[in-house]
Design a protein that fits this description.
Elements: H1 3-19, E1 26-31, E2 35-40, H2 48-52, H3 55-62, E3 68-72, E4 75-81, E5 88-89, H4 90-97, E6 105-111, E7 116-120, E8 129-132, H5 139-153, E9 159-164, H6 188-208, E10 214-219, H7 222-229, H8 231-243, E11 249-255, H9 260-263, H10 265-269, E12 273-276, H11 282-289, E13 304-309, E14 312-320, H12 323-331, E15 347-349, E16 369-372, E17 382-384
Parallel strand pairs: 1-16, 5-14, 7-17, 8-11, 8-12, 9-10, 10-11
Antiparallel strand pairs: 1-2, 2-4, 3-4, 6-7, 6-14, 12-13, 13-14, 15-16
Length: 385
């Protein structure tokens, strides 16, 4: 992203607010793979609701699809989607974290500040994960990302995978990964058989007092699986999410609309972590996340997710892995995948130009302030639980 464009966008934000007699100045911000966030400091006495009400006008002035204004610590941030969003590549990011994360930890992607988001499935606060979103939200790609990162960051003697995919397409590329303890289950009968064997393994571990190696069951299109497999599938899955964590067994499942009528209230209540992609309405967002106010209905898809965990709501951009990379990972999981360079770029934002009332003095350019490229916390990973 060019310096000139950043300066132009900052000036346009100041111009819109100045036209409504709100003399603010853009003094910094962050450029991430998907968005640019401008930091502004409003004067005392200005109602934040008045600034937030101008979000659409700011988006129009910037020629952007939308604009989000939120408070972060002592300042306001104006978040604008980038015209050239960059994907978050999974394997170079995993390479940077190899040997630095606990076992049974999955890499999800990057948060709004560019820091890697890690999910430790073995934590009591995590245990099982429910992924929801409409077609095109990226939920199946996120399942592939989680599975591939688990393979990359854990040896086969530390972790095993069990995969269920009724359509056979979403998780099919993972069928050759070295950590699979069972063949990929595609048909309803195969899924019931696999689930039954995992439940038997859970009971065996309970009797022996064992919990290793960790076993992660990943199921795509959960609603289809339940509709085809019926009550037997619901019963087996419910037993796993109720008792699996103590035996080192964790469930990661994806579905479009996780209703209690379809999945059963007991099963749904045992997913402490929700990853919600784009949904159709605020009602669907509430249904998927379990809490209100996530605004998941405003996500743009393409791997943008809201994470709900421990009562906190945060946004993330899911990492992505290609078919070719999956094949390479299956053949040589310990290869050197290089470094990810997108978030190493840093930008400088000069601030206001002084050409608008109350923004700078005497027509002189504002002093330089940093607009940084997504490394606000030194790229220190955020490990949930």
């Amino acid at each position: 992203m060019r310096q000139q464009l950043l300066e132009h966008q900052a000036d346009r934000i100041e111009m819109v607010l100045a036209s409504h007699k709100i003399p603010v100045r853009v003094y910094g911000g962050t450029v991430t793979s998907q968005t640019t966030r401008f930091q502004i400091l409003p004067p005392l006495g200005v109602k934040l609701s008045k600034i937030r009400s101008l979000a659409e006008e700011i988006a129009l002035a910037l020629g952007a699809e939308g604009c989000r204004i939120q408070r972060r610590e002592g300042a306001l941030e104006v978040e604008v989607p980038r015209d050239d969003p960059q994907p978050v590549h999974l394997l170079p990011l995993c390479e940077r974290l190899r040997g630095r994360v606990p076992s049974c930890t999955a890499l999800l992607g990057r948060d709004g500040e560019g820091a890697p988001i890690l999910l430790r499935l073995s934590s009591p606060q995590v245990a099982h994960v429910l992924v929801a979103g409409t077609t095109g939200s990226g939920k199946t790609a996120l399942l592939r990302t989680m599975a591939a990162s688990l393979v990359f960051l854990n040896r086969p003697h530390q972790l095993q995978l069990a995969l269920v995919d009724p359509k056979g397409r979403g998780l099919g590329p993972l069928a050759s990964l070295p950590h699979l303890g069972w063949p990929l289950a595609r048909e309803a009968g195969e899924a019931v058989k696999l689930l039954g064997e995992v439940v038997e393994e859970m009971e065996r571990r309970d009797r022996a007092g064992h919990s290793e190696p960790h076993l992660v069951l990943i199921a795509d299109e959960l609603a289809d699986l339940v509709q085809v497999g019926g009550g037997e599938v619901v019963e087996l899955l419910t037993r796993l999410v109720q008792r699996g964590r103590q035996a080192g067994i964790h469930v990661v499942a994806a579905t479009q609309r996780p209703t209690s009528k379809l999945l059963g209230g007991l099963m749904k209540a045992n997913f402490p972590v929700r990853l919600v992609g784009r949904v159709m309405s605020a009602r669907d967002a509430l249904l998927a996340a379990g809490v209100g106010g996530t605004r998941a209905e405003r996500l743009k898809g393409r791997g943008a997710f809201v994470m709900v965990a421990e009562g906190r709501v945060s946004r993330l951009q899911a990492a992505y892995i290609t078919q070719g990379e999956l094949e390479r990972l299956a053949n040589s999981p310990n290869s050197d995948w290089g470094e990810e360079g997108e978030n190493e770029t840093r930008y400088l934002l000069q601030g206001g130009s002084g050409q608008y009332p109350g923004l700078g003095g005497g027509g002189q350019p504002g002093h330089g302030l940093g607009l940084r490229g997504g490394e606000r916390r030194g790229d220190r990973p955020v490990v949930l639980a």
